[in-house]
Amino acid sequence: MGIIVKLDDRLQEKRMTLTELAERVDITLANLSILKTGKAKAIRFSTLDAICRELDCQPGDLLGFSPEA
Amino acid sequence: MSEPRLEPPGRRHDPLLASVWWLLTALLALCLILGVFCLLGYPILLLNKAYFIAEFAKTGIDASAFTWIGLLGVIAAIELALTYVFLRNLRKIIDSVAHGHPFERANADRLRRMAWLSVGMQIVGIPMARLIVWFDALPHKPNVHHNSAGVSIGTILLTLVIFVMARVFRTGAEMQEDLEGTV
């Protein structure tokens, strides 16, 4: 699948840890880790909404597409 | 996903599942006992061949009946072995349901295996039914009629339902995997 998750980049920009984000968006660390490592098969709008709200970004800042990926 | 353990499901939570589990366990034991009986029966008959042939002659049964009885024992043992594997697969499905993981690929595979086992049981049942008909026609037979062996519309329908259920479970397993990969 060519979808790339750029959550790590955004977290570095915001100087926030994954654990901290997990607490703020009320999603388990395990699930966020799955998302960060690109192992997730799907993402709920509610999850995307919560992450964008906390990281102050657009969905496009978190997700990208690369045909080679 | 790990293989469900072979132990009774939480009976306090679901008495129906527990009842089925114990019933299947009892049937598995019965299959084993009958299977051993079928396999050991013929050698025992062979050891006392002269006696049994004499007894057959007294009741007007041909000596060739000896061979047919042996064949019936072997076919019955095969039928019981297939039934045993069928029931074991069913019990594993019950285990997975009791543990809250019914929609897994292993269950779809088990159901597909059970459907093929059911086909096998019906095929094996054909010669067995013929032999039972012959057995019923013997003089001085016990006053019972056996007509459960062989192919019937009900068993064909059951087999088809199991094949369909295998597909349903495979789709269910795929949906479950998708759900587990959703964050």
Features:
heterodimer, A: 69 residues, mainly alpha, two-stranded antiparallel ribbon, 5 helices, 2 strands, 9% strand, B: 183 residues, elongated
* Helix content, binned percent of chain A: 55-70%
SS field, number of helical segments of chain A: 5
Helix content of chain B: over 70%
Radius of gyration of chain B: 21 Å
Series of secondary-structure elements of chain B, N-terminal to C-terminal: HHHHH
Strand content of chain B: under 5%
Gyration radius over CA of chain A: 11 Å
The fraction of residues in strands of chain A falls at 5-15%
Which secondary-structure class do the elements of chain B indicate? mainly alpha
DSSP E strands of chain B, number = 0
- Give the neighbour order of strands across the main sheet of chain A: 1-2
Q: Which overall shape of chain B is indicated by the principal axes computed on the Cα atoms?
A: elongated
Distance between the termini of chain A: 7 Å
Span between termini of chain B: 19 Å
Largest sheet of chain B: none
Oligomer type? heterodimer
Low-confidence stretches of chain A: none
Shape of chain A: globular
Counting helices, strands and paired strands, the structural category of chain A is mainly alpha
List the helices and strands and how they pair.
The complex is a heterodimer of chains A (about 70) and B (about 180).
Chain A: E1 3-5, H1 7-14, H2 18-25, H3 29-36, H4 45-55, H5 59-62, E2 63-65
Antiparallel strand pairs in A: 1-2
Chain B: H1 15-47, H2 49-58, H3 65-98, H4 105-137, H5 153-180
